[in-house]
Amino acid sequence: TTVCGILYPRESESREVVPLDGIWKFCTSPAEDQEKGFRNKWFSTDLEEWIPMPVPSSYNDITVNSVVRDFIGWTWYQRQFYTPKRWWLDKQRVVLRFGSVHYTAIVWVNGKKACKHSGGHLPFEADITTLLFYGTANLVTVAVNSTLTLSTLPQGYVQHPNDTRRYPPGYALFHYDFDFFNYAGIHRPVYLYTTPQTYIDDITVTTDIHEDVGIVKYTVEYQNKLRDPSSVPQCTVTVFAKDGTKVTSVTGVSGKVHIPKANFWWPYLTNPSPGYLYTLEICLTSEIGKDVYRLPVGVRKIAWNSTTFFINNMPTYFRGFGKHEDSNLRGKGLDYALLIRDYNLIAWLGANAYRTSHYPYAEEALDMADALGIMIIDESPACTIDNFSEELLQKHKEVMTDFVRRDKNRPSVVMWSLANEPSSFRNESREYFSALVNLTKSLDPTRPVTFVTSQTVDEDKAVQFMDIICINRYPAWYSDSGRTDLIQLQVKNELVAWHLKFNKPVLVTEYGAGSVIGMHTAPSSMWTEDYQVVTLTEHFKAFDTLYKEGFLIGEMIWNFADFATPQEYIRPGGCKKGLFTRERQPKMAAHITRWRYWTLAHSS
Ligand code: GCB
């Protein structure tokens, strides 16, 4: 079987892109009869009982009904759309693509199954050319299941308690160990796009720099649905500068392009024009005509040693935070207003990096990072995994393969994170992570591979395989609550110990404190804005003394903004460790972080 690419749908002279976003019909399955929709073939006729549901969006917070908010199981989405007759006459190939659907999705077009996909954070698509009616209405139906199991990423499980004094018979309790709400639905844009029958299927680009010359190595994969072996298409690759001027052009499905006096891709604030992107125009010419695809390319080189991380041979310090895809009403659904607001706030803070905690983010978000020079630690959806089975490892390998395929060409992606806070004190985690590191390095030898640990330096079994040590630690919050006077001592001792044991660079990927906006005390106490400020400031002091030791490569605050969690008595309406509220307004902590990040940017 041929491995197919998953290029982002882009319009060109040979490709049309039609969004199917908007308001879809939606219903949940009856709790006691999850199979009803399948039995009654809801995918082949118009849904009878439905409510309107926006796409993209999570469904959970749209209604006022707690059944919808907390729903675990099969939900159904449906809409009509039209395809023009000329697509058929022009022999176009038509693809239906979902940016992401959480968690399992089955898609039917005109009553026929188009595809099935499991995994909530990566795109999938199906060639639906032969399922479509051209020049008339088509029906697309998507069944979405939010259930997580011990072999999904992340993991979850359903429990049926048998204590009938406390729970009615058949009562189901859904559990998961990760600390964010399990939003579900069609989370990212849905597109129809066309290509010719002989088309560009995938592009792989790696870049290097040599003095002031940029080197772009590329490989183009194509598919020929006509299956005429006599017709070998010709490939032309042309590089354009940001202002549209042509730089150079070469031919062949793989090769190297040299860009003299190149504008390199730099992180935000290290250069007057960070995030510089060239356009690589791929033109595949076959007997039936041309297919054209334009890929943004940033020319940069990543390197690291036992103490330092380099971009374009320059030591680079990460100033950032962990984020979430999360906001009011839309949950984890892509929202362009939110996306641009977030990047405005990132720029305002003077940050140069964030981690896609705790799953792959929307491609639209990474486009912004590419263009602004924001370094991304690209994290898989393996949050808080605890049960290391062979089945889970297979799933994890599949996910890393799809993840690297999606993001491999992005200059912003500077590191792969395999997982967040797994039970890496367990012996089984050793082989598990060693296998994953090997796989990821074989898929992408150019970027460092890591995972984020919350274990102690003595107990962790997996950090040894990583290129960079990433640590989450909450002194004065989860340990020694209320004792901000201990932060400096504990942070210094701990980070030094990690570096001494493994002789690798150290990055703090989480630290912080919760604050409810508007709450103040003097002296500071937990949950006040004052306490969050003191917690961060004490960390800043510790980082400053360690900076001189040379092995600390960055600091990331938990979290960019407040976000939704399951209902718990330890969370006042969600996780409140944000620098910004969930509505993206600054807390006191945002102002001191801004002061720090701009100062760091100008002193390095
Ligand atoms: C962590 C987790 C993160 C949580 C955070 C917290 O260590 O990595 O997902 O949100 O702590 O605030 O509890």
Automatic annotation (TrEMBL):
<dbReference type="GO" id="GO:0005615">
    <property type="term" value="C:extracellular space"/>
</dbReference>
<dbReference type="InterPro" id="IPR008979">
    <property type="entry name" value="Galactose-bd-like_sf"/>
</dbReference>
<dbReference type="GO" id="GO:0005764">
    <property type="term" value="C:lysosome"/>
</dbReference>
<dbReference type="GO" id="GO:0004566">
    <property type="term" value="F:beta-glucuronidase activity"/>
</dbReference>
<feature type="domain" description="Glycoside hydrolase family 2 immunoglobulin-like beta-sandwich">
    <location>
        <begin position="198"/>
        <end position="300"/>
    </location>
</feature>
<keyword id="KW-0732">Signal</keyword>
<dbReference type="InterPro" id="IPR006101">
    <property type="entry name" value="Glyco_hydro_2"/>
</dbReference>
<dbReference type="GO" id="GO:0019391">
    <property type="term" value="P:glucuronoside catabolic process"/>
</dbReference>
<dbReference type="InterPro" id="IPR023232">
    <property type="entry name" value="Glyco_hydro_2_AS"/>
</dbReference>
<keyword id="KW-0458">Lysosome</keyword>
<dbReference type="InterPro" id="IPR006104">
    <property type="entry name" value="Glyco_hydro_2_N"/>
</dbReference>
<dbReference type="InterPro" id="IPR017853">
    <property type="entry name" value="GH"/>
</dbReference>
<comment type="similarity">
    <text>Belongs to the glycosyl hydrolase 2 family.</text>
</comment>
<keyword id="KW-0326">Glycosidase</keyword>
<comment type="function">
    <text>Plays an important role in the degradation of dermatan and keratan sulfates.</text>
</comment>
<dbReference type="InterPro" id="IPR013783">
    <property type="entry name" value="Ig-like_fold"/>
</dbReference>
<comment type="subunit">
    <text>Homotetramer.</text>
</comment>
<dbReference type="GO" id="GO:0005975">
    <property type="term" value="P:carbohydrate metabolic process"/>
</dbReference>
<keyword id="KW-0325">Glycoprotein</keyword>
<dbReference type="Pfam" id="PF00703">
    <property type="entry name" value="Glyco_hydro_2"/>
</dbReference>
<protein>
    <recommendedName>
        <fullName>Beta-glucuronidase</fullName>
        <ecNumber>3.2.1.31</ecNumber>
    </recommendedName>
</protein>
<feature type="domain" description="Glycoside hydrolase family 2 catalytic">
    <location>
        <begin position="307"/>
        <end position="600"/>
    </location>
</feature>
<feature type="domain" description="Glycosyl hydrolases family 2 sugar binding">
    <location>
        <begin position="20"/>
        <end position="196"/>
    </location>
</feature>
<dbReference type="InterPro" id="IPR036156">
    <property type="entry name" value="Beta-gal/glucu_dom_sf"/>
</dbReference>
<dbReference type="GO" id="GO:0030246">
    <property type="term" value="F:carbohydrate binding"/>
</dbReference>
<dbReference type="Pfam" id="PF02837">
    <property type="entry name" value="Glyco_hydro_2_N"/>
</dbReference>
<dbReference type="InterPro" id="IPR006103">
    <property type="entry name" value="Glyco_hydro_2_cat"/>
</dbReference>
<dbReference type="InterPro" id="IPR006102">
    <property type="entry name" value="Ig-like_GH2"/>
</dbReference>
<dbReference type="Pfam" id="PF02836">
    <property type="entry name" value="Glyco_hydro_2_C"/>
</dbReference>
<keyword id="KW-0378">Hydrolase</keyword>
